[in-house]
Specification:
By secondary structure, the chain is of the alpha/beta class. The protein has eight helices and 37 strands. Strands 13, 16, 17, 18, 22, 24 and 27 form a seven-stranded parallel beta sheet that branches. The protein has a six-stranded antiparallel beta sheet with strand order 29-31-32-37-34-35. The protein has a five-stranded mixed beta sheet with strand order 2-9-8-4-5. The relative contact order is 0.09.
Length: 527
């Protein structure tokens, strides 16, 4: 029963009668009760029942003003029912509703593939081959700079998302719990209380996440932008190297940390695909991180993969091996360095995902050939690259310290689109196969294959300035049969040569045309 001086109003604000599969549906809950801290003194929850009878509990969150909200992305076509509840200090109200989940062009959240432990796929089974960006600026993003006066050039995030559609498909977000370190968005304001969050910033995040999603982007979100390996920053929960009062199961403010995580999961979980607990943290004990992972897992109705950086690869809760790489080597060396790094990290039997990639300051951030080689090499080694995009200006080489990051200009975007087009329909069960040539001096060759399809990436690492002609044929393990062999230029997607080849043995021999930097090849079995 309500008290006369308090009234709760629960309404499905603009609740549609139908919702697209995997699209975000929102239930808005309002009250005129006054709270000194609405984040802690009231709570919202909902339970959704699927057409097959499955029950899904979804936490709500304080949206701002007099509004609480529950967000939900249904994963099953047909009629759903829901029951929602808003509880305050003096009462609660319950209400129920129904909606129909209809087909959409969404493919669901990103999952670790059951067909290949090193790959990702969407819930509908479509392969997801990530090429990512950390934008640093979120609502205005560095883009094709500098301005004519030499200043940093930015564009609205919606324009950036449109320009990068088809180029990158994974965006990384860093949240700061009372710190702006790195590129953190201060969901807890600097100097603010650890149990109160900035709903204005959160609202802008809501809008941008939806925009990026509409442009084909998936998301990684980091609750704790920390960088404790590199400094002694102070957060709302304590100094980043404090393993007694902050990063500890015995920390007095651990319940506040857990509440912060639950708020993030409730507010953004319907948009996010991967949770990355910390960024460049080196102090958090394993048991503390394991507890945070449990908090997220229990709060998250979608069971998104969980990782952290720097990675705890052997920990069971850590589902993705993440690493960072800022390079001071040339483009000619990049593929060998990457293949070695990825190969060692794959020993844990988990997906390997670089979540920051770029150049050291001794090199310029403008390095499109390297960015292309890195993306192809990562894919061909069953891995992925996420660039730290800093495209508001072009840097000069020779800085003694720091990172110049990655300038992702029109040429790089074009080349990454070529890669995306090449790999978009490749099956997830392509695994490394033997591929080489007799001379072994000037080329590095990577190959993936199954019974029907084989793909190769050939890099002329010896010298990018002159064409190279192979004296010997390449051979690759395909099994016996007739094949269609197509050679392609990774720079512009131009088909260089295509034709049939036949082998009665397990290895297919074929000639490669002259190449200067690199070449891609697709081999398809002909029935």
């Amino acid at each position: 029963m309500f008290l006369c001086h308090v009234a709760f109003i629960l309404a499905a604000l603009l609740q549609p009668t139908s919702v697209g599969k995997y699209e975000v549906s929102e239930i808005s809950l309002k009250t005129d009760e006054m709270f000194s801290n609405p984040f802690t003194e009231a709570s919202a929850t909902a339970v959704f029942r699927s057409p097959s009878g499955r029950r899904v509990g979804v936490p709500g969150f304080y949206f701002g003003g007099t509004t609480w909200m529950v967000r939900f992305a249904p994963d099953e076509a047909g009629q759903w029912s829901w029951q929602a509840k808003l509880s305050g200090k003096r009462g609660a109200v319950n209400r129920s509703g129904v909606f129909r989940c209809v087909p959409s062009d969404r493919r669901g959240f990103v999952r670790i593939s059951k067909r290949n432990p090193y790959r990702f796929e969407f819930e509908d089974g479509t392969p997801f081959y990530p090429i990512g960006v950390q934008t640093c600026g979120y609502f205005r993003v560095g883009f094709d700079g500098p301005n004519s006066d030499g200043s940093w050039k930015t564009v609205p995030a919606e324009m950036w998302s449109k320009e990068f559609q088809g180029t990158t498909n994974l965006i990384r977000w860093q949240l700061g719990a009372g710190t702006k370190a790195g590129c953190a968005l201060t969901l807890i304001p600097v100097g603010g209380q650890p149990d109160r969050y900035d709903t204005e910033i959160a609202g802008k995040m809501d809008e941008l996440l939806a925009v990026q999603r509409a442009h084909g982007m998936s998301h990684i979100m980091i609750p704790f932008q920390d960088m404790s390996l590199w400094g002694k920053d102070v957060t709302a929960f304590g100094t980043v190297d404090d393993v007694v009062n902050y990063k500890s199961l015995k920390a007095a403010n651990l319940p506040l940390q857990e509440a912060y995580l639950r708020y993030i999961v409730a507010r953004f979980g319907a948009f996010v695909d991967i949770w990355e607990l910390f960024n460049e943290d080196s102090y958090a004990p394993n048991d503390y991180l394991a507890r945070l992972a449990v908090v997220i897992r229990e709060a998250d109705p979608y069971k998104h993969p969980i990782t952290t950086n720097y990675t705890r690869s052997s920990e069971k809760w850590n589902e993705i091996v993440t690493w960072h790489g800022y390079m001071s080597i040339s483009a000619t060396e990049t593929d060998a360095w990457l293949a070695d790094k990825i190969g060692r990290l794959k020993s844990y039997g988990k997906p390997v995902l670089n979540t920051e990639f770029g150049n050291k300051g001794v090199l310029s951030n403008v390095d499109p050939v390297k960015w292309r080689i890195a993306a192809w090499t990562a894919f061909m080694n069953e891995s992925n690259i996420l660039y730290w995009g800093m495209s508001g200006r072009k840097t000069e080489p020779g800085q003694p310290r720091g990172n110049s990051n990655a300038y992702l200009g029109p040429d790089t975007r074009r080349q990454l689109r070529v890669l995306n087009e090449f790999i978009r329909d490749l099956p997830l069960d392509l695994r490394p196969v033997e591929c080489t040539y007799s001379q072994q001096n000037d080329l590095r060759i990577f190959a993936l294959g199954n019974e029907k399809t084989t793909v190769l990436y050939v890099h002329h690492f010896a010298d990018h300035s002159r064409p190279y002609k192979l004296d010997q044929r390449i051979y690759v393990h395909t099994g016996a049969g007739r094949f269609r062999v197509t050679r392609m230029n990774p720079e512009d997607g131009r088909v260089i040569r295509s034709g049939s080849a036949v082998t009665q043995q397990q290895y297919l021999f074929f000639e490669m045309p002259p190449l200067t930097i690199d070449l891609a090849c697709r081999v398809e079995r002909e029935e």
